[in-house]
Amino acid sequence: MLSASEEPVNKKRKMSSSDPERRKTTMLPVDVTKLGTFGTRSQGSDLLDDLEITLDAKAYDAQHIIAAAVQLRISDVPVAFPTETVYGLGADATRSEAVKGIYSAKGRPSDNPLIVHFSSLGQLRKVLRPDYNESDTNDPIPAIYHPLIRRFWPGPLTIILPNPSDSPLAPEVTAGLSTFGARIPRHPLALALISLSGRPIAAPSANASTKPSPTAAEHVAHDLDEKIDMIIDGGPCDVGVESTVVDGLSSPPVVLRPGGVGIEELRKCEGWKDVRVGYEDAAEKSGTPRAPGMKYRHYSPKARVVLFEAGSRLPGGEEIVGHCQQNNRIGLIRTKTWDFNANDEMTPIRRAAAQAVAHTNGHHETSSGFAGMLQTLHKQHERLLTTSHKISTSAGDVAVLDIALGRNVADIARGVFAALRELDLAGVDAILVEGIDESDNSVAAAVMNRLRKAAEVHVGG
């Protein structure tokens, strides 16, 4: 629930996603600590508490959120905003023309369904049962999901729900399916925006279709400049990979996309001990995908990605040089074991801060509910470092641009998309990536799923 000390009064021309002119894309920085006050209200025995936000409507940061909410209500041009996973590209999920604006801006195939974001369970229940009121004792949210909501919401988990025959959702959201994906994000700016707009918000990742997902506002600007009007810059994302998508309507339940919540975590919840994997790491070939990220190749920079599966050795200098083309530049993303200190073929040149960001704290907060979210508002971040190496060959010198993401899986997840983008912007011919063991970590499985979809060449495994 959100209140403001004044109602936004500025009106804008209703803009269509088919407007031919180039747009001026404005980045609006918002500091959550200057937005207003956040609190929670118990809902008794309900699955989730309520978030209460009181905006300081005269504050500079709050005005940006108010402007974005107005845009969502009256415009068909989507708004980019941060979530805890990646930046989303949002539009009013109840208006067809607004949802079409997402597909247009991203260049997204129309048969790829969208996830709908909510700010409260009450808002979600109104979609599942348009005549729902708080006195109803029969919850329209299927009981199979109740343990997951109590444990993981708000957070990086999307649940597949039946779309009612009198659904207020635009048909473009579901891409012809009888179901839709829903989640409540764990980011105060996203929640404030959804609450203030008064609409459920359809929002895929805010990148050009097939490109690496954006984990900072600068990534959105790179892909969508002059295609959208507004980017809410709330700083870097905390999780770094998209939400886990689960289908509890099938028996047994299945994971349709790995993400910030792992299958072993799901199996600890009542009714989910037999949950199975229902996705492929490679793009699936036919049919309408049951969830985003299943059918099409994703997460790919312009440079060719070469994925070395976990346990593969660090490639030697000649092998690295073999991937060079016209630019004589190679990107390298190291994780757990690759160490250049033991490779005397490399000559370190310099270290420089990249545009990407990584979280300084390897701990992933798992407290449930909005109250748990409010404990994690103040995050510290540091920049990734790119080290430049040189390999001397008979044909000349080759530059190796190296980003070490560290050994912590959470840090790898937060930094991997940003690293792909940074090396691509540097004009490398190929990006060689050290894969990680996914056998005992939920986020690691999500990272490897994304890398396998991005890679043109796989080594080992």
Notes on the structure:
By secondary structure, this protein is of the alpha/beta class. It has two domains: 26-277, DHBP synthase (Alpha-Beta Complex); 304-348 and 383-459, Rossmann fold, CATH 3.40.50. The chain contains twelve helices and 21 strands. Strands 2-11-5-6-10-7-9-8-12-13-14 form an eleven-stranded mixed sheet, with helices on both faces. The protein starts with a strand and ends with a strand.
CATH topology of the largest domain: DHBP synthase
* Class of secondary structure makeup: alpha/beta
Sequence stretches where pLDDT stays below 50 over 5 or more residues: 4-20, 353-365
CATH architecture of the largest domain: Alpha-Beta Complex
SSE map:
Blueprint: E1 2-4, E2 26-29, E3 36-41, E4 50-55, H1 60-74, E5 79-82, E6 87-92, H2 96-106, E7 115-117, H3 121-128, H4 146-152, E8 157-162, H5 171-174, E9 179-183, H6 188-197, E10 201-202, H7 217-224, E11 230-233, E12 244-247, E13 254-257, H8 263-267, E14 276-277, E15 304-308, H9 317-321, E16 329-334, E17 347-359, H10 369-374, E18 381-393, E19 396-404, H11 409-425, E20 430-434, H12 442-454, E21 457-459
Parallel strand pairs: 1-4, 2-11, 5-11, 7-9, 8-12, 13-14, 15-20, 15-21, 16-19, 16-20
Antiparallel strand pairs: 3-4, 5-6, 6-10, 7-10, 8-9, 12-13, 17-18, 18-19
Helix pairs in contact: 1-6, 11-12
GO molecular function, one term: L-threonylcarbamoyladenylate synthase
Domain YrdC-like: 63-261
Family: Belongs to the SUA5 family.
